Amino acid sequence: MAKVSRPEVAAAFMRPPAGVLLGRLVQEGALSRAEAEIARELPISEDICVEADSAGHTDGRSAYALMPAMLSLRDEEMARHGYAKPIRAGASGGLGAPEAVAAAFVLGAEFVITGSVNQCSPEAGTSDAVKEMLAGLDVQDTAYAPAGDMFELGAKVQVARKGTLFPARANKLYQLYRRYGSLEEIDEATRRMIEEKYFGRSFDEVWAETRDYLAERKAYELERAEQNPKHRMALIFRWYFVHSIRLAMRGAPGQEVDYQVHCGPAMGAFNRFVAGTDLADWRNRHVDVIAERLMRGAADLLDARFRAMLATPAK
């Protein structure tokens, strides 16, 4: 399955693998010649999940615009390559209420995938402190922040905003990275604020930890950082993004302001949907129960709407 939010990326997954790639796989023994011949008539992915505005890495796309475009692209690629089996297209992003799930199916989705709402469940691997935070969110309680793994590129992730200062602090670090060429150019007051309030340790301490990690796993990255002060600054700032995820995962008490929690507005929508029910408490939100409530709610909603439409005389 390929999870995509851009048509040009989706198109690559809907097409057969390149002949050069297949040839190399045959040479490496990863595929037989017969398997490679079959692969020439198959898409790289037979399931495409169209990702609208979502938690974590997101292009912030509207499902209402994105889904029709992707379905049209799917039909074009199906006709062009003459696949015997249809490419299935599903939807994700923003699915926290039965109305949203119903809308996805009306738009043409053949399956749906939830994300944010599953993080607020007993099965989720994050801390109870994060689950309590998520259970208290409304639809407006998210924000966009720089992505730690693509910090220099300015890529964004969507995170929880209520109860944490992470989005504001992460954006501040990115502004400083864009403005300055090295840590030494940052004024003393700003430097002290970051070290004391954001990091809880000095830049030198962060660099020592980062340097040890790179020396063991990415020596080439360490060499680049020692030659390029701006890259060294980026690596030190990126440490905060890893640190903030670790704090959230273990539910570090007293450090909630630095929790990085990937989350989209679907969480707030789900909290409103289950308010006053047995699922108001996240401890009852088992993932299978969440799926059943959303799907059953969407089915009931669609049934009622279509019945109402059929009962209304056409004008």
What attributes characterize this protein structure?
three-stranded antiparallel β-sheet; globular; alpha/beta; four-stranded parallel β-sheet; 315 residues; 13 helices
Q: Percentage of helical residues?
A: 40-55%
Largest sheet: 4 strands, parallel
Question: What is the residue-mean pLDDT, rounded to a whole number?
Answer: 92
How far is it from the N-terminal to the C-terminal residue, by CA?
A: 44 Å
Q: How large is the count of helical segments?
A: 13
- Which regions are unreliable across 5 or more consecutive residues at pLDDT < 50? none
In spatial order, strands of the major sheet run 1-2-4-5
Number of strands: 7
The helix-and-strand class reads alpha/beta
The sequence of SSEs as H and E is EHHHEEHEHEHEEHHHHHHH
In percent terms, what proportion of residues is strand? 5-15%
Q: Tell me the radius of gyration.
A: 23 Å
Name the shape in a single word: globular
